[in-house]
Amino acid sequence: MNRKYRKTVIAGNWKMNKTPTQTKEFMTQLKAILPKGRWCDIALCVPAVCIPAAVRAVRETRIGIGAENCNPNPSGAYTGEIATDMLVDAGCKYVIIGHSERRAMGETDADVNAKVLAALEAGLTPIMCCGESLEQREADITNEWIAMQIKLGLQGVPEEKIRKVVIAYEPIWAIGTGKTATPEQAQEVCESIRAVVRKLYSSKNARAISILYGGSMNEKNAFELLAQPDIDGGLIGGASLVPEKFVQIIEAANQPTA
Ligand code: PEP
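That is the input. Now the predicted structure with phosphoenolpyruvate docked in place:
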């Protein structure tokens, strides 16, 4: 982290977990134990049906609610889909885009790019995910692969909007597996992502963009991961479902930075 130049963001990804009733219960528990300080932005990206309950529950707190996906089209015949303006109207501030679980369902880099542009246009903060498979890591092509995902995902994002994008580096082999990238592995890739942003935009923008790590981050390993200079927060799946664990990760973000 480096709070001098960029935001620290601790974001939860609930995936397909919790009902609206459980959302309300979770938020009540979370608010009771949430640290008072203001050292990081907190986001909870929840299933679409939980958004109204989540938004109601976090009023007058510093928690921002997000969606887990969006459709890039403004409206129309897209049964089952949700447009970015709908998310904004429902009270969302964030949207996860390009999660590997959605890419596995067929989402392409072009889809990711269209969604990032639509999210920015609507005023949402896109949390754009990238990450390599175990095979790609073993073939030693991680940085090239991630650089390609970043370049394609950010195509057409204008300079004045790049700082609004949050990038989440999530090695696929570490998601939901209990296998975390070592702090050094995660730092290396996050640093290389920042270098890609530097090349595409500028040093100033690269220094200002928040890059998160995701992949089995939990209350035990968060401190060390967040101590890395280019890891500006976390995208957290499993551990974001338990208020005490999520709060401990938020507390790990309260450490001195460079
Ligand atoms: C995720 O879903 O983005 C994620 C990182 O999950 P987990 O923390 O459970 O590995």
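Residues 183-200 form the longest helix (18 residues).
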